[in-house]
Design brief:
heterodimer, A: alpha/beta, 10 helices, B: mainly alpha, 4 helices
């Protein structure tokens, strides 16, 4: 059975001091640290790109795992801010950069913060349907490319990052159950307008606190599990205040749901993989992941350790 | 819902969500900002008050509710 074998991530070297940003926006530093929960934001520098960041994540993966390039049969990239405007699809550019074989399927997925949970399911299903044994799921969504420099609500929040997850027939974790939801009528809450990101903070907040906990509870119910049965909850790291309250409303034991965005900010589809990379070596038996954002789209999945 | 019940809900939600805030009737006309309620707490208070009172508060309506009294008025008007 296919599943997650290994994971690695990459943070660009560029950094934005979020407290200095807070001063510039005349925003209370304590609010930024305690409520948004972000002190530093990793940012792409001029030389960075989706392809280079993904290649760097892959390089880190190769330090953990012996990945034979000739064996990689599938590359999926989740991004909404690709290089070259997305033409060609950036997974093909990554394919070229890594020197992967011709017999390798490559495609991009255009999802935001729910993208990792979706992407895992998509790549595993696609690989299983086509008899593939080894694939790579990349995430990299540099929102810095679309931030309005005058909009404190988004500038203080988003960081750039990349991740790669190795999917193989010798997994450490396999998918147990998942649910995927969309509320297209609320899509204006997070959208690009004239090239710049617009966010209705209240609408996103209400969505995260009202819809996401319900889905988490439904996934647990359908798997006949309770929150106590899950060892680790990896929730999309939107902002500290939103996360704390989503965790409360989902009746998740707070100690099982790490909040780690102080040094990264909201890295969109990379936020769950960044957490997973930190936690995977602690070998939790069951992991619940929940990603939510642009769309509005939300997805929750339970992964179980292979013994 | 009576005004008294709505006042009780709004005061309870403010005290529950805003650290250190003690509510009293004379503070109901103050702006939330003057009561030390930051923008994120405001969203939570309005959401919790709406849920506790069983009323739906749209994003547009929520934007106009900048005092505890206005939240109360909105709840009893529904």
């Amino acid at each position: 059975m296919l599943g997650i074998q290994s994971i690695a991530s990459y943070l660009p070297k560029g950094r934005v001091d979020n407290l200095k940003q807070a001063d510039q926006f005349d925003t209370d530093r304590e609010f930024v640290e305690q409520k948004i929960g972000v002190s530093t934001l990793p940012r792409f520098e001029e030389q960075d790109s989706v392809v280079s960041a993904c290649a760097s994540a892959f390089e880190k993966l190769c330090k953990k795992e012996n990945v034979e390039l000739a064996e990689v049969e599938c590359v999926v990239l989740c991004t909404q801010n690709p290089d070259k405007g997305g033409l060609p699809h950036n997974s093909a550019l990554i394919h070229g950069e890594l020197g992967l074989p011709d017999d390798c399927a490559c495609f991009d997925i255009g999802l935001g913060c729910s993208g990792y949970v979706y992407g895992l399911s998509v790549i595993q299903s696609f690989m299983a349907a086509n008899g593939m044994k080894k694939g790579l799921l990349f995430t990299c969504d540099p929102y810095s490319r679309i931030l309005n420099p005058d909009d404190k609500n988004t500038c203080l929040l988003f960081g750039d990052a990349a991740s790669v997850t190795l999917i193989s027939e010798t997994p450490r974790y396999t998918l147990s159950s998942a649910k995927f939801s969309t509320k297209g009528s609320g899509s204006a809450a997070l959208q690009k307008n004239e090239g710049l990101l617009e966010m209705n903070g209240r609408a996103v907040f209400n969505f995260a606190l009202q819809d996401v906990p319900k889905q988490i509870k439904r996934v647990l119910e359908s798997a006949e599990l309770k929150a106590e049965d899950i060892d680790l909850f990896l929730l999309h790291q939107g902002s500290r205040f939103m996360l704390e309250n989503t965790i409360k409303r989902a009746s998740i034991p707070a100690e099982k749901a790490p909040i780690k965005l102080n040094e990264t900010g909201n890295t969109v589809s990379s936020s769950i993989p960044l957490l997973l990379e930190n936690e995977i070596d602690k070998s939790p038996e069951t992991i619940l992941m929940s990603g939510f954002g642009v769309g509005l789209s939300w997805a929750t999945a339970i992964y179980t350790q292979v013994k | 819902m009576t005004r008294e019940e709505a006042v009780k809900i709004v005061m309870a939600m403010l005290e529950k969500n805003v650290e250190g805030l003690e509510m009293s009737e004379d503070k109901m006309g103050e702006t939330l900002e003057n009561l030390g309620v930051d923008s994120l707490d405001m969203m939570l208070v309005v959401m919790d008050a709406g849920e506790a009172a069983g009323v739906t508060i749209s994003d547009d309506d929520a934007e106009t509710l900048d005092t505890p009294d206005k939240i109360v008025d909105f709840i009893i008007s529904q």
